[in-house]
């Protein structure tokens, strides 16, 4: 005996990318500009401790601090971890050690990568290292390409520094990209599967009997699972609409066009779609419409008038 | 009238089975059975609850305002009194506790969920780091924990075999006591994922959800035979610069524990949110736990670590031990951020049982 095959779980790649743009305070600006100029700055707290990388507020007292000092590009590893499989975005694309490095003249440690061709056996807490500068520097923590082993003694004391540079860096752009696999779950999968057959399927709440489309698996009023599948439409009524006058990027639709809320027959919730086949200034509340499917798209391309008389306001006023 | 602190209790706890992937359900579909179970235990309906608070993260889902979808599962119809923290649900519980202290509600539903399977959780968690000095380097969560582990080894506070023993104890406890756990039983300690941490030192990646009900005063006694009274709860944070901190210690945990009253009398049970074996070493020291205390009888985060819910689960497991009568005084700890950056400690007590 064999059991029927489980319905295939829908999945799709989902990429989230954003250029995180941030302004800098005076201390961060001096530090990152300094890196561009191969100069490492720290900040001295009122207790006399030198923080590298520097912050604008004392982590103990929360006082604003901006007494800048220059420290050495050499330092000592305070702890480490061997990373055998670098991940996207990390400083080196071959196995390396993450290190916290206390630069000579500083009292705190900076996180970065250590290029250690000798492998994990060549790394230890207390080892001496120095900065390897990136060839192209823009005023960012990545201006330090990584650290590398160095056999010199600890020597330098911090020196006062004005923190002034020509053309200071005042902001950073931190690009981020995260990759996901989107899986829509039971209710939305059923809805999407039906769309592939050009049918629109919602789900009914067992408690209040409302039909939700697209279904999300739960009735937001009753907090229970919606389970009973109900085919709705294909015809429906425009409950409200707006006229779009701005052309969206990468969208091949002439403006102005109408975007509307459409209550499909049998549904207790309006979904949204574009209205076509009628001049934009003739679309109205109560207009009866039907979906137009084109090409391979899973969703109706747009909705067009059916030619029926307009629906009476009382038939859709609860769905506005 | 404002109830006195200590007159608020966790009266019910439920959690999902924790799984590597849950592709067959959406977040709300994963969460709903847990919500229904926790309400059923008290006889409450969603509409009876005075305050609802949740914890989750948009970065796990990869979508903005993702918690609003999950809200469908509680019937969030106005005029619901509701709030959300973009953090572990333990902090949502803290907010609910404060709400009950104000006297504006006498019951609260707290839930949390996370589907780590949607993305790469090691990468996702880099986005919670300082955006100037850390995030551009993409240091993943395992690597940061490994730096902390090496610092502990260098300080002579632990070593590989001791860490392996923590892993083995946790997963054996889960096999005995926790039918919901994802990773249970004796297994090889594995290769280095990021030296000095081996795969066995790291938590499983998985999906899951949890919920608790809080109630104040007489309501708590009505809803639960043996309420887990919250005698104290506090949370504290470390400096965000990792190189500013002593990674072998957790002063924020110690301070939160002190403010919560943890050191006034010994506890018999502690549920610690230590996703990495090395972090249990730090927490035991900060909380002054000796071998007389049962630590993580549930298996802890090493057995199931649904991100954003694992801390709330520690509070729920500690409370459930009191409900069952296997504990009279339990500590619960939750953490958030890299290397135990933020820490919450609660002291839970049951009343003396009739002989
Ligand atoms: Zn309903």
Automatic annotation (TrEMBL), chain A:
Gene3D superfamilies assigned: 6.10.30.10
Taxonomic lineage of the native organism: Bacteria, Bacillati, Actinomycetota, Actinomycetes, Kitasatosporales
Pfam families xref list: OB_ChsH2_C (PF01796), zf-ChsH2 (PF12172)
Domain ChsH2 C-terminal OB-fold: 69-133, 230-293
Organism in which the protein naturally occurs: Streptomyces ficellus
InterPro entries recorded: ChsH2_C (IPR002878), ChsH2_Znr (IPR022002), NA-bd_OB-fold (IPR012340), Thioester_dehydratase-like (IPR052513)
Domain ChsH2 rubredoxin-like zinc ribbon: 193-226
UniProt-recorded Gene Ontology molecular function terms: DNA binding
Top-rank lineage group of the source organism: Bacteria
Protein name stated in the entry: DNA-binding protein
Keywords (A to Z) from UniProt: DNA-binding
TrEMBL record, chain B:
Protein name listed in UniProt: Lipid-transfer protein
Single GO term (MF): acyltransferase activity, transferring groups other than amino-acyl groups
Gene3D superfamilies documented for this protein: 3.40.47.10
Signal peptide (residue range): none
Highest rank taxon of the organism: Bacteria
């Amino acid at each position: 005996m064999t059991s029927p095959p489980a319905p295939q779980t829908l999945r799709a790649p989902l990429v989230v990318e954003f250029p995180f743009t941030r302004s800098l305070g005076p201390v961060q600006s001096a530090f990152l500009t300094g890196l561009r100029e191969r100069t490492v700055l720290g900040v001295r707290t009122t207790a006399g401790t030198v923080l590298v990388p520097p912050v604008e507020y004392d982590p103990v007292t929360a006082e604003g601090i901006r007494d800048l000092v220059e420290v050495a590009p050499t330092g000592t590893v305070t702890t480490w971890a061997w990373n055998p499989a670098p991940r996207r975005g990390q400083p080196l694309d071959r196995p390396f050690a993450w290190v916290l490095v206390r630069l000579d003249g500083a009292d705190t440690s900076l996180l970065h990568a250590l290029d250690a061709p000798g492998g994990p056996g060549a790394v230890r807490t207390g080892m001496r290292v120095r900065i390897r500068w990136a060839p192209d520097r823009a005023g960012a923590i990545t201006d330090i390409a990584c650290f590398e082993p160095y056999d010199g003694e600890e020597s330098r004391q911090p020196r006062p520094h004005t923190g002034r540079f020509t053309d200071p860096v005042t902001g950073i752009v931190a690009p981020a990209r995260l990759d996901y696999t989107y899986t829509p779950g039971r209710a939305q999968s059923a809805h999407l599967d039906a769309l592939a057959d050009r049918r629109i399927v919602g789900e009914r709440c067992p408690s209040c009997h409302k039909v939700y489309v697209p279904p999300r698996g739960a009735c937001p009023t009753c907090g229970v699972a919606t389970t009973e599948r109900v085919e709705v439409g294909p015809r429906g009524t425009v409950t409200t609409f707006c006229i779009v006058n701005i052309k969206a990027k990468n969208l091949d639709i002439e403006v102005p066009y109408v975007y509307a809320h459409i209550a499909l027959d049998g549904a207790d919730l309006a979904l949204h779609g574009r209205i076509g086949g009628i001049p934009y200034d003739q679309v109205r509340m109560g207009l009866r419409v039907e979906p137009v499917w084109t090409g391979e798209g899973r969703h109706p391309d747009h909705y067009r008038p059916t030619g029926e008389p307009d629906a009476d306001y009382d038939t859709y006023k609860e769905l506005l | 009238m404002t109830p006195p602190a200590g007159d608020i209790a966790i009266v019910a706890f439920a959690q999902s089975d924790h799984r590597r992937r849950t592709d067959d359900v959406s977040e709300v579909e994963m969460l709903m059975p847990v919500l229904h179970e926790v309400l059923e235990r008290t006889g409450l309906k969603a509409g009876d609850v005075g305050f609802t608070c949740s914890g989750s993260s948009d970065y796990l889902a990869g979508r903005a305002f993702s918690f609003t979808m999950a809200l469908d599962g509680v019937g969030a119809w106005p005029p619901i009194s509701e709030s959300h923290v973009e953090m572990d649900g333990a902090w949502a519980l803290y907010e609910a506790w404060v709400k009950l202290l104000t006297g504006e509600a006498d019951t609260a539903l707290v839930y949390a969920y996370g589907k780590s399977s949607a993305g790469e959780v090691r990468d996702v968690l880099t986005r919670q780091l300082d955006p100037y000095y850390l995030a551009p380097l993409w240091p993943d969560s395992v690597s940061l924990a490994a730096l902390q582990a090496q610092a502990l080894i260098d300080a002579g506070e632990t070593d590989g075999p001791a860490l392996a023993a923590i892993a083995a104890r946790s997963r054996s406890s889960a096999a005995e006591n926790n039918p919901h756990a994802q990773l249970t039983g004796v297994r090889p300690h594995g290769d280095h994922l990021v030296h000095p941490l081996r795969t066995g030192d790291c938590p499983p990646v998985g999906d899951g959800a949890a919920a608790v009900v809080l109630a104040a005063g007489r309501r708590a006694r009505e809803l639960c035979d043996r309420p887990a009274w919250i005698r104290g709860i506090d949370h504290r944070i470390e400096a965000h610069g990792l190189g500013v901190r002593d990674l072998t210690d957790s002063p924020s945990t110690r301070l939160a524990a002190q403010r919560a009253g943890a050191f006034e009398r010994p506890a018999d049970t502690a549920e610690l949110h230590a996703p990495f074996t090395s972090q249990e070493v730090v927490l035991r020291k900060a909380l002054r736990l000796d071998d007389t205390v049962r630590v993580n009888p549930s298996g802890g985060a090493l057995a199931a670590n649904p991100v954003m819910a694992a801390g709330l689960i520690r509070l729920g497991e500690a409370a459930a031990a009191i409900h069952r009568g296997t504990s009279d005084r339990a500590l619960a700890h939750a953490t958030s951020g890299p290397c135990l950056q933020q820490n919450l400690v609660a002291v839970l007590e049951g009343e003396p049982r009739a002989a």
